[in-house]
Amino acid sequence: MIRLEDLSVAFDGAEVVKNINLELRDGEILGLVGESGSGKSVTALTLMGLVSDAAQVTSGRILFDDVTLLEAGRPRDRSLYRGYQGNKMSMIFQEPMTSLNPTQRVGKQVDEVLRLHTGLSPEERRKRVLEMFRAVGLREEEKVYASYPHQLSGGMRQRVMIAMAVILHPRLLVADEPTTALDVTIQSQIIGLLREINEKQKNTMLFITHDLNLARRICRRIAVMKDGRVVEQGDTEQIFGHPAREYTRKLIEAVPSRIKTNKAARMADTAGEPAVQVRDLSVFYQDGGNSLFSRNRRRCVVEGAEFDIYPGESVGLVGESGCGKTSLARAVLGMNRDITGQVVHRTMGPQMIFQDPYSSLNPAKTVGWLLQEPLRARGLLDREKAMTGEEMEEAAYEMLRRVGMDDLYFHRRPSQLSGGQRQRVSIAQALITHPGFIVADEPVSALDVTIQAQIMELMQELQQEMKLAYLFISHDINVVYRMCDRIMVMRKGRIIESGDRSEIFEDPKEEYTRQLLRDS
Amino acid sequence: MRYVVKKLITLIMTLFLVSAAAFLAFQVIPGDVVTSILGTEATPEREEQLREELGLNDPPVTRYLNWMGGVLRGDLGVSYRYSKNMNEMMPVTELIGDKMPVTLWLAALSLVLIVALSIPLGVIWARSKSHFLDAAFGVATQTAMAIPSFFLGILVTYLFGIVFRMFAPGGYVSYKEDFGAFLGYLLFPALSLAIPKIAMTARFLRNSMLTELGADYVRTAYGKGCTRRRVMYGHVLRNALMPVVTFLGMIIAEIVAGSIVIEQVFALPGIGRLLISSISNRDLPVVEILILYITFVVIFVYFLVDILYRVIDPRISGK
């Protein structure tokens, strides 16, 4: 049994984990749920002895069976911890690419756990690693053993991470958002694998996620965290059925669920002319085109796409990453030049909203400047539409208010904003020139569930006000369900199925669509 | 294989461009070899006669092509300025032959010193937890970076040559006579050349290691139960070396240029003095060959760095 008693952790005097009490019973899977910044990762890292030296345990202690691993007022005993880390307790991280050493073969990285904690000979160790690779579902384990992380897919890397974590059958397994960086289909495979390992090895598992749906699928008990505190704790069904706290209820409601119907009245104006018309569109890429001597191969990444999007309508584009969603969207906006077929725009200056609001806003500029930039650019292109400085400023303030942000943010820089606020700025930036058509490429994937809900609501409001046509790209079918009137399913560069939302969800024609629905 | 061919073609193209640029520069700068040989008092007839002898009256393009044709056939041409005796011209090959190895060995030795000293220093610095050690390293490298090599050369001569008597200033031994003694003598000039670069590289490696220490895979390594030492040497070092290798590649050219200056301080018979006097004498054939040679060396080292980079970072060769 592992217990966290009255645990508080502070950085620079500011407590981020406050008086937490958690009990992990043998063999159970406990879900630790909360938005980012709620303190769940710091809790896990503290438990694992991996939290940075800047963190201070200000109260409480951590008990592993009867051993006190950590106690307030005592420095962390690294050598005591080393006997546990990798051996009796281990951790799986969110990002398997960066969590593996890029310059070491993955076999060797898993082997290191055995080298550190067992006295096995090199041959025995190799055998154990290969067996473990097979057990976590890695085929061609010899090949995987000799591979570097970049040569494996995201799902394979996460399997390697899992193999590394469970090869010594640890008592405690901490999984910190282990599937967040993966595609839906891979996600459910990994969840299945973790559950299987839990059944076989009987480890105690602490499963950390911001996704309540996911927690519901795998955890027996759930603890909800907010602002560093555990606000609610109990059996999964109890939490979902009768949430005791307002916050938990909000968290559950925020999850885009298929059961919940879309409140917004549909505004699609399908009688008139479509805002965008796409006919027989194919998109090509050059392979290895950066060298003087290589023969260029032209690879088709999107084949024969055809659709219309009407003003006020949202069309969802779903599919796994790499299926050509983004290439198609870029081609529709004219950002991919190597295309055949036809794209007709009947609105002016279509815009794009990007996935990552952290890197798509220039960090050196203020929000006000960023919002005026599209107006300045338009002024340069078209003298008639040029505005004076004051007019642009006025328009930027106006737009900022429309996306629900206070005037005082006008002079802030992106680094001073939260993820949700940044995405609001991106949306304001896209809408300030009053385009009729917006491509939104995974606009909420990088955000927490509650923020996700707010942003989707905002996008729907703006759509009604401005009669916008959306092409909404996402790998998350629940998000698409909530946002879109029509849905197109894409696979390997082709749109394999499309139809009204209800058709796709209730009566999918393609096996692939059915699988996507099951996995989400 | 295709990679090597590609590199070779780049090398050849660069050499052509550099030689053409040097040739062009000589057309543009005022003064020519005739004035430099005969002085300003010579009669126009004598000047004209000498120009004809040296082939300077041909159009520049013809002269360049003639010279290039010679080089391609292995004939590096003759010096305008130096002659063997009254009747025989001095071939560039003979003029340079003895001097080039001195300069190259000097550059190579300082490169070896840089690699051999800066990497351990950088690692120790990155590992040092005490503030005193950290600050001491900071001040020491800052100082070493600020001192110009030629001045360091004077300091080294005074300290090791005159105070400690570890070598005899001016007591140069030719590499043909005793290679070991030759390298021993080169050690101190190489050190003066290397010290500022060692400081830079160590600082760079230390920063790179500290950055890498924040990476996710480091957390994974600790999570396995690795000691700090094991994390440093087993995981961080190799990743941290990648930018350092690029940096080393970039300072190669500086080392070669620096060795020309250092030769003057230590009175080494390298190409330094010859290059400078040949430029002021407008001795084009000599300058051309020296420049080509240096360019070749620099590009060749870049090529080696590239290969090394591929060895360290598996992600590059995979693409």
Would you write up a description of this structure?
The complex is a heterodimer of chains A (520) and B (319). Helices cover 37% and strands 26% of the residues of chain A. Chain A has 19 helices and 19 strands. In chain A, the strands form four sheets. Chain A has a six-stranded mixed beta sheet with strand order 6-7-8-3-9-10, with helices on both faces. In chain A, strands 15-16-17-13-18-19 form a six-stranded mixed beta sheet, sandwiched between helices. In chain A, α8 links the parallel β7 (172-176) and β8. Mean pLDDT of chain A is 86; it is low at 259-265. Chain B is built from 14 helices and two strands. Chain B is 78% helix and 3% strand. In chain B, strands 1-2 form a two-stranded antiparallel sheet. The mean pLDDT of chain B is 85. Chain B has two domains: 2-93, no CATH class; 104-272 and 293-316, MetI-like fold. Chain A binds chain B through residues 48-50, 81-87, 90-91, 93, 95, 98-104, 112-113, 116-117, 148, 150-151, 161, 164, 291-294, and chain B through 2, 5-6, 215-217, 219-227, 234-235, 238-239, 312-315, 318.
Shape of chain B: elongated
Q: What's the SSE pattern of chain B?
A: HHHHEEHHHHHHHHHH
* Cα separation of the termini of chain A: 33 Å
The third-level CATH topology of the largest domain in chain B is MetI-like fold
Rg of chain A over CA atoms, rounded to whole Å, is 25 Å
Describe the structure concisely:
The complex is a heterodimer of chains A (520) and B (319). Chain A has helices spanning 40-48, 78-84, 96-99, 106-117, 122-135, 141-145, 154-166, 184-201, 212-218, 236-241, 246-254, 325-332, 367-381, 389-402, 419-431, 449-466, 477-483, 501-506, 511-519, and strands at 2-11, 14-24, 29-33, 55-64, 67-71, 89-92, 172-176, 204-209, 221-226, 229-235, 276-287, 297-309, 314-318, 339-345, 351-353, 437-441, 469-474, 486-491, 494-500. By secondary structure, chain A is α/β, with parallel strands linked by helices.
